[in-house]
């Protein structure tokens, strides 16, 4: 079981926070902050922990978006990832790479780099949720 955190900025041209993976699988590729849930750990707690370990950011207001469970999503084996979403003011945040991240940065949702795992599909789902809310 894993968790992924989608942090989207609250601006006219929204950006998403991504990490460049330090290790395989997908070393050197951009990805959402996330990782494995520890035994007995609550999902939201795991998402906050992974986010802080990989980006140095503490974000309390995470909303559970959905569970991604395509059997081919991770080359290490079948994993289910619970995805969390938060809208943030990126001007107030100072992310820094840590743990499994070689680099961390904000990327425009309209101009995403190649992404690891199924993170492009996850971001499409997050974008649809944000669009539904705006209407």
UniProtKB/TrEMBL annotation:
Source organism's superkingdom? Bacteria
Q: Does the keyword Coiled coil apply?
A: no
Looking up Gene3D superfamilies in the UniProt record yields:
Nucleoside Triphosphate Pyrophosphohydrolase
Keywords assigned: Hydrolase
Q: Which Pfam families match?
A: NUDIX (PF00293)
Please indicate if the UniProt record lists Membrane as a keyword: no
PROSITE patterns xrefs = NUDIX, NUDIX_BOX
Residues of the Nudix hydrolase domain: 1-131
Gene Ontology molecular function, alphabetical: hydrolase activity
Family the UniProt entry places it in: Belongs to the Nudix hydrolase family.
- Which named protein is this? ADP-ribose pyrophosphatase
Task: Give the organism the record lists.
Answer: Fimbriiglobus ruber
């Amino acid at each position: 079981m894993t968790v992924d955190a989608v942090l989207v900025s609250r601006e006219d041209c929204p950006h998403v926070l991504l990490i460049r993976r330090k290790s395989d699988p997908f070393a050197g590729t951009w990805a959402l902050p996330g990782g494995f849930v520890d035994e007995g750990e609550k999902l939201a707690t795991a998402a906050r922990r992974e986010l802080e370990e990989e980006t140095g950011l503490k974000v309390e207001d995470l909303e559970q978006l959905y569970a991604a469970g395509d059997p081919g999503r991770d080359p290490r084996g079948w994993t289910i990832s619970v995805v969390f979403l938060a809208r943030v003011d990126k001007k107030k945040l100072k992310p820094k790479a840590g743990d499994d991240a070689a680099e961390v940065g904000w990327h425009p949702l309209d101009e995403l780099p190649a992404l690891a795992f199924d993170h492009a599909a996850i971001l499409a789902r997050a974008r649809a949720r944000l669009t539904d809310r705006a209407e």
